Automatic annotation (TrEMBL):
This is histidine kinase. Keywords: ATP-binding, Cell membrane, Kinase, Membrane, Nucleotide-binding, Phosphoprotein, Transferase, Transmembrane, Transmembrane helix, Two-component regulatory system. It is a multi-pass membrane protein. It comes from Fusobacterium hominis. One of its GO terms (molecular function) is phosphorelay sensor kinase activity.
Length: 450
């Protein structure tokens, strides 16, 4: 139970506080270890350094007696003759200078609280005179201990400054994380998938994480927009057939008296139900295509594909008294999805037949040019007004003239599907149309795999 409460408490602590506590703990231990080590090894360090400095200084004077000084850099120098009589120099307070000559060895003199190192050497060229260097260890040790004491007293304040400065640095470093969290919460509350995380430019891990979040949000937004578009399309387009079905059903229940009248009502209901099924199939197909970023492709002979499609429309052209001509270059190979590209040609030819009057010509051309495959579907029917040409690729858009809904019942999705499939193939489609004269849909597909 206590462990669960502890875990719950720890999980509630902000990550900035956790990181600050952890590094404070380690810095505190490190600082304590350093101070403790200094206290224990200070005497060793002081002894080694001061003795080496004492030997070096005395050697310099012994070699060059003319450089003799009574005091230099914390060391006192005394000059004696061969009998031990003092010839010059300053004796430090507390030091008894009646010590015997003891050359080439660091000696220690300690009286009560005073401790000294001294070192003797004969002076070169002075017939038995010698020099003694005296280093007052106690004074320097006291200074050193005072410094350690000051450090010990100041260490809590130093630790506080380190903690405070570190906390500020960590908090500032985690600001992008707070921004990421805040943006995610806003998206959740408002369901606004258009928001993005803006933390500026950077190449560290947090900026990489923000970039990954933005990529994920792009995917979510696209999925959300497709879902929203699908719901809007379905509700918009199904409203009319459902209303017709409900009206016809109500009429059948209330007014139909004969089998013939019932058959007529059933025919209307069947026709509208079929329309709903076809409409839903096309909407779902378009939605799936729009969600894809790429489709499987393979190399195939598009010339043979177009020739096969042409043969499928020969009988229909004869029934509608339409002249269908073709000019297809042989053996043009491209990389693409054959099933989807068949759908493109079928849609364009179906439109051409649907919106063309009797005794009208439809032409199908295919050829290669500048590493591209060009496919043209041309008819000399009613055409498309200039003002409508940019809109025909939109969902459910239909031209409001005889290329229209009255005679040719369509859903306005065919050209949207064509445009989407071509985008997946890095291709494009161009339209040239003169009302009541000519319409040409020109498809441009790259031959190489891209």
């Amino acid at each position: 139970m206590l462990l669960k409460i502890k875990d719950r408490f720890i999980k509630q602590i902000p990550i900035t506080a956790k990181v600050t506590l952890w590094y404070t703990f380690f810095i505190g231990i490190l600082l304590a270890a350093i101070l403790t080590s200094l206290f224990f090894i200070s005497d060793i360090i002081l002894t080694n350094v001061s003795q080496q400095e004492l030997i070096t200084s005395v050697n310099k004077i012994a070699i060059r007696p003319s450089k003799f000084e009574s005091y230099d850099d914390g060391i006192f120098f005394l000059k004696y003759d061969a009998r031990g009589r003092k010839l010059g120099g300053i004796t430090p307070a507390g030091f008894f200078d009646n010590a015997r000559f003891s050359p080439n060895k660091v000696n220690i003199q300690q009286k009560r609280h005073n401790k000294f190192f001294y070192y003797d050497m004969k002076l070169r060229g002075e017939h038995g005179n010698w020099v003694r260097g005296v280093f007052p260890v106690t004074k320097i040790a006291n200074i050193f201990k005072y410094i350690l004491f000051i450090l010990s007293v100041m260490s809590p304040f130093l630790l506080f400054l380190i903690i405070y400065g570190g906390y500020k640095i960590i908090k500032n470093g985690f600001k992008p994380v707070e921004k990421i969290s805040s943006t995610a919460m806003k998206i959740k509350e408002n369901r606004d998938f258009s928001k993005r995380i803006d933390i500026g430019y950077g190449k560290d891990e947090i900026h990489k994480m923000a970039k990954s979040f933005n990529s994920m949000l792009d995917t979510l937004e696209n999925s959300y927009l497709h879902e929203k578009q699908f719901s809007s399309d379905v509700s918009h387009e199904l409203r009319t057939p459902i209303s017709v079905i409900m009206a016809e059903s109500s009429y059948g229940v209330e007014h139909v008296e004969t089998v013939e009248e019932a058959r007529e009502s059933f025919a209307v209901i069947h026709r509208q139900s079929k329309r709903m099924t076809e409409l839903l199939t096309q909407i779902m197909e378009l939605t799936k295509l729009e969600e894809k970023e790429r489709v499987p492709k393979e190399k195939f002979n598009i010339s043979e594909m177009i020739e096969d499609i042409e043969s499928d429309f020969v009988k229909l052209s004869q029934e509608k008294n339409i002249l269908l001509t073709s000019d297809i270059e042989s053996n043009v190979f491209i990389y693409g999805n054959q099933l989807l590209l068949e759908r493109v040609i079928y849609n364009l030819l179906t439109n051409a037949f649907k919106f063309t009057k009797d005794k009208i010509k439809i032409s199908l051309k295919s050829y290669s040019h500048l590493n591209c495959c060009i496919i043209e579907v041309e008819d000399n029917g009613i055409g498309i007004p200039k003002s409508e040409q940019s809109k025909i690729w939109d969902r459910f858009y239909q031209v409001e003239q005889s290329r229209n809904k009255n005679k040719n019942q369509g859903y306005g999705l065919g050209l949207s599907i064509v445009s989407t499939i071509l985008k997946l193939h890095n291709g494009k489609i161009e339209l040239q149309s003169i009302p009541n004269q000519q319409t040409i849909f020109k498809i441009i597909l790259p031959i190489e795999n891209m």
